[in-house]
């Protein structure tokens, strides 16, 4: 670098340090101000409840600001030119960060990464400058205290553009992983940004290979939507659904780090709100219960509760006897069925129609019934009795108990939908004494939700982000469709990573079950996690997975792969972990359930402290976890033990192995005592 340039860079850096001091000062002012408001909050608010809420809000705001110095205050700067594309930003310069920071006059020093103009930071290129003259990315130390280390410029107006060659991007994706997942606001890529900023009303599906940033995109979209539609979405507006608690724990810090604490993050079981399952289905029973045809079976069983009226409804009122004839009642039942409302709404409608008929009769006698009279009539014993016969109240658990324990009822509901073998597979061998003592399996809980949803629609979220969506069954999709009937979806997944017995092989089908049949399927194909050498190894499995998914291109040229034949797996694992501990970052030992206890015992005997799947104690860098829980997680160093076991442990074992091998951020060790699965060995 020539001296004059060096001088200029030094000057620039000095200017940046000066600006940083200004921002720090502004932040300190904001913090002090917020704390003052906390102190006075009690007095200014009207009642105690409001005061408490306000106090809590201000405290968390103050706390957020106080924690701010631990993370970089901004990550980039945009300098606009004076061309027409700059619009109202002509000759302006903006710093971009996780939060907006203002000075004591309210002038923004740092703007939010979600503000409209920030999208130009992520998307502007030398070919499509969008008015941007130069983009600057800042580098910061990774550890506390956070210090500015430098910056990287792209003068788009001079045709300069780094794209994925940016050293700061490379440093970020090659950074050793410790603790939970982090946000990616500093390095969101143009195609990711388009997905993040998609309109609230747009449902979309993202198909992306391992480590292409699907989870990151989904979480950042949630944060973006909350920023743009704050008022609409604050209370129960946004839900994130993940495959298991270990995964949710891993991603749990991302949204709070972006200042968003109002997003619910749940597993599907938690969405259904059920207690843990108390029964286990056979594979065949589970397959049938999760099939889309079951929705039709349940609907038929539900509506089979409605019976043809055989008696008129007679209500004595004073000297009159008001009456709904059998024919009139039957006609209303048929009409309401055609109106296709939820079962529970139908029952109430039938009650209202009976009341309306009584009202007309009373009016014919020259009387005007009051509102109260109408309410009383609606609850009169003959009306309720007629309603209970014609359109009875249904409890989902009672209906399902009857269906699964009565072969004839099941045969009637499943006629033409399920084969005799399929009916047999889901029938209970032992009939419970009552629905109260029935033991429900995980699949039964989805069926109960289906029935409950047909009786009454559940409350709808405005937006749901569904991660690992390829693994959902038709009925699980329907459960989420019901909860987003008035909202939109971000559906994330990878067909190649489908491991459930009902995993999707086609996104359009899955989207139809999710109630968003016409949503576009977008692809992410650049891998930010798995190094090229590891990805090439894992991709050997693709021909055996029988899915049409675009291949992933890794951005990472570093990384290491070691495949070793090891007759004594526990001691080979101990040795591999010992070597891995020489490097920085997290270590994941992944094997089948059957092997785990032996491996953990061997590690502990060697004096190595290990975390189990959902733990991440900072003083234990090694996690031992079953292959079944590896989905969505990542570790710097993965030690995959006995791939052949992983493949044989379940019907979609090859897909499971693909998931396991693609958890590695830097290094993958494969230890095997038996031959490797043919596709891996042949590559
Ligand atoms: N634009 C980006 N800049 C920096 N890091 C990124 C970017 N996009 C993704 N990453 C990182 O890549 C890793 C993988 O991302 P993520 O877990 O979202 O991928 P995924 O597609 O959900 O993977 P999988 O399907 O294998 O679970 C994460 O550590 C994430 O932070």
TrEMBL record:
Q: Which InterPro entries match?
A: DNA_helicase_UvrD/REP (IPR000212), P-loop_NTPase (IPR027417), UvrD-like_ATP-bd (IPR014016)
- Ranges in coiled-coil conformation: none
> What residues does the UvrD-like helicase ATP-binding domain cover?
187-531
Might you name a Gene Ontology BP term for this protein?
Answer: recombinational repair
Q: Name one GO cellular component term.
A: cytosol
> Which key words are in the record?
ATP-binding, Helicase, Hydrolase, Nucleotide-binding
**Nucleotide-binding keyword on record:** yes
One GO molecular-function entry: ATP binding
Annotated ATP binding sites: 208-215
**Name of the protein this chain belongs to:** DNA helicase
Organism in which the protein naturally occurs: Rugosimonospora africana
Q: Lineage of the source organism?
A: Bacteria, Bacillati, Actinomycetota, Actinomycetes, Micromonosporales
């Amino acid at each position: 670098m020539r001296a004059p340039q060096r001088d200029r860079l030094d000057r620039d850096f000095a200017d940046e340090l000066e600006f940083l001091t200004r921002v720090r000062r502004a932040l300190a002012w904001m913090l002090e101000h917020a704390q003052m408001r906390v102190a006075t909050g009690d007095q200014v608010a009207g009642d105690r409840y409001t005061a408490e809420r306000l106090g809590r809000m201000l405290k968390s705001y103050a706390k957020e600001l106080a924690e701010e110095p631990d993370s970089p205050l901004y990550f980039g700067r945009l300098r606009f030119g004076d061309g027409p594309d700059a619009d109202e930003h002509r000759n302006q310069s903006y710093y971009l960060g996780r939060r907006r920071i203002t000075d004591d006059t309210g002038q923004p020093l740092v703007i939010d990464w979600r503000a409209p103009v920030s999208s130009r930071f992520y998307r502007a290129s030398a070919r499509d400058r969008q008015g941007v003259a130069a983009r600057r990315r800042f580098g910061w130390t990774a550890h506390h205290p956070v210090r500015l280390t430098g910056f990287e410029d792209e003068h788009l107006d001079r045709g300069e553009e780094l794209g994925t060659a940016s050293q700061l991007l490379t440093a970020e994706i090659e950074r050793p992983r410790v603790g939970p997942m982090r946000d990616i606001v500093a390095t969101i890529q143009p195609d990711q940004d388009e997905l993040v900023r998609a309109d609230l009303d747009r449902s979309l599906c993202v198909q992306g290979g391992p480590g292409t940033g699907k989870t990151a995109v989904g979480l950042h979209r949630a944060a973006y939507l909350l920023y743009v539609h704050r008022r609409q979405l604050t209370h129960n507006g946004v839900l994130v659904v993940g495959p298991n608690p270990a995964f949710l724990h891993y991603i749990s810090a991302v949204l709070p780090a972006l200042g968003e604490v109002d997003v619910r993050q749940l597993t599907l079981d938690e969405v259904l709100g059920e207690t843990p399952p108390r029964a286990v289905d056979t594979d065949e029973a589970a397959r049938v219960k999760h099939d889309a045809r079951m929705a039709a079976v349940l609907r038929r069983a539900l509506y089979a509760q409605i019976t043809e009226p055989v008696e008129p409804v007679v209500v004595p009122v004073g000297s009159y006897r008001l009456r709904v004839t059998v024919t009139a009642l039957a006609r209303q039942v048929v009409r309401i069925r055609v109106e296709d409302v939820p079962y529970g709404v139908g029952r109430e409608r039938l009650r209202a129609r009976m009341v309306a008929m009584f009202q007309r009769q009373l009016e014919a006698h020259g009387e005007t019934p009051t509102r109260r009279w109408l309410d009383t009539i609606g609850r009169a014993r003959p009306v309720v009795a007629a309603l209970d016969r014609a359109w009875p109240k249904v409890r989902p658990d009672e209906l399902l108990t009857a269906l699964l324990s009565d072969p004839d009822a099941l045969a009637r509901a499943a006629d033409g939908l399920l084969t005799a073998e399929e009916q047999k597979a889901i029938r209970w061998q032992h009939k419970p004494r009552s629905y109260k003592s029935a033991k429900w399996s995980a699949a039964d809980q989805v069926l109960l939700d289906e029935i409950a949803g047909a009786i009454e629609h559940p409350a709808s979220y405005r937006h749901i982000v569904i991660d690992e969506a390829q693994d959902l069954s038709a009925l699980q999709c329907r459960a989420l469709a019901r909860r987003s009937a008035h909202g939109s979806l971000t559906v994330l997944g990878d067909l190649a990573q489908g491991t459930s017995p009902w995993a999707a092989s086609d996104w359009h089908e899955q989207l139809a079950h999710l109630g968003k049949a016409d949503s576009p399927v977008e692809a992410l194909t650049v891998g930010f996690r798995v190094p090229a050498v590891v990805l090439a190894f894992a991709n050997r499995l693709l021909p055996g997975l029988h899915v049409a998914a675009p291949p992933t291109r890794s951005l990472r040229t570093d990384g290491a792969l070691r495949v070793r034949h090891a007759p004594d797996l526990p001691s080979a694992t101990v040795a591999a972990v010992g070597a891995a501990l020489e490097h920085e970052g997290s270590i994941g030992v992944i094997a089948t359930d059957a092997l785990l206890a032996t491996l953990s015992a061997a590690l502990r005997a060697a004096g190595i402290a290990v975390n189990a799947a959902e733990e991440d104690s900072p003083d234990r860098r090694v996690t031992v976890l079953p292959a079944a829980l590896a989905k969505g997680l990542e570790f710097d160093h993965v030690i995959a033990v006995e791939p052949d076991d992983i493949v044989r442990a379940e019907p979609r074992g090859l897909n499971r192995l693909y998931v396991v091998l693609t958890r590695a951020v830097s290094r993958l060790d494969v230890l095997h005592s038996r031959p490797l699965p043919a596709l891996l060995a042949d590559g």
